[in-house]
């Protein structure tokens, strides 16, 4: 199967990808082609032999990339038939990790976002939370608004090995949650919910009264065996509540 890798070799995205190990380059290429709609659920992707020729790598390297993508449920492999893009239902998780923009839209309201920070970070606690031994990691701070009223302060650290193009995204038009789930399905997540007073910066961004508590959701999510992101979501208690059903 002919791929379109050559058509994008000069792009900034490909240059970033070339800094990764060879098997990760192949993984990112496959994920990018799925994300941009070139390959759709059920489509056959290039074989190991074709990937070896396209990327100039060993068969072992190509096999590792496809094996890991299969374990991450991005692809499905059928003995004797080939490797296919997994059905879209794999993009959902057994735990509901909801996108704030979708919640707001479902209420018939308008979502908007202010990006306060989009940067690299050497924060030791953040690096440890992502199960990494060294930085930098990616850091974003975003205020999400409903009809212009701030309802969530998102303080997120992201694994740069899983999402190398994170800092190039426009998070006023797509939330980090949506961007990451679109690229790589979440395998598992852990949550903690606390009532906590915000610091002055968060209180100001959320336009809260002094002394008003927040509902704080701390969450880590995994893609494959790696921690994808560690995020704290601060919500004014007077403007937000969590609901769910089992």
From TrEMBL:
The record's section on SUPFAM superfamilies has: Chorismate lyase-like, Winged helix' DNA-binding domain
Q: Does the keyword Lyase apply?
A: no
Q: Where is the HTH gntR-type domain?
A: 20-88
Output one GO BP term: negative regulation of DNA-templated transcription
- The lineage's top-level taxon is Bacteria
Asked if the keyword Calcium belongs to this entry, the reply reads no
Q: Which Pfam family would be a valid example here? A: UTRA
Sorted keywords for this record are: DNA-binding, Transcription, Transcription regulation
Q: What is this protein called?
A: Histidine utilization repressor
Q: Which organism is it from?
A: Caballeronia arvi
- Source species taxonomy: Bacteria, Pseudomonadati, Pseudomonadota, Betaproteobacteria, Burkholderiales
């Amino acid at each position: 199967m002919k791929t379109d890798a050559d058509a994008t070799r000069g792009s900034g995205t490909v240059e970033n990808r070339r800094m990764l190990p060879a098997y990760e380059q192949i993984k990112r290429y496959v994920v990018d082609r799925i994300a941009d709609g070139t390959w759709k659920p059920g489509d056959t992707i290039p074989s190991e032999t074709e990937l070896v020729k396209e990327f100039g790598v060993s068969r072992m390297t190509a096999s590792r990339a496809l094996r890991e993508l299969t374990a991450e449920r991005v692809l499905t492999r059928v003995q004797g038939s080939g490797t296919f893009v997994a059905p879209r239902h794999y993009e959902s998780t057994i735990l509901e990790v909801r996108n704030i923009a979708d919640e707001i839209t479902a209420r018939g309201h308008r979502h908007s976002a202010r990006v306060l920070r989009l940067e690299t970070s050497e924060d030791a606690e953040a690096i440890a939370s992502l199960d990494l031994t060294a930085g930098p990691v990616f850091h974003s701070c975003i205020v999400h608004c409903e009809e212009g009223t701030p309802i969530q302060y998102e303080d997120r650290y992201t694994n740069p090995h899983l999402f190398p193009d994170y800092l190039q995204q426009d998070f006023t038009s797509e939330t980090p949650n949506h961007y990451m789930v679109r690229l790589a399905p979440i395998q598992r997540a852990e949550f903690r919910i606390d009532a906590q007073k915000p610091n002055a910066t968060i209180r100001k961004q959320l336009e809260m009264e002094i002394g008003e508590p927040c509902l704080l959701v701390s969450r880590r999510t995994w893609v494959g065996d790696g921690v994808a992101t560690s995020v704290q979501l601060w919500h004014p208690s007077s403007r937000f509540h969590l609901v769910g059903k089992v």
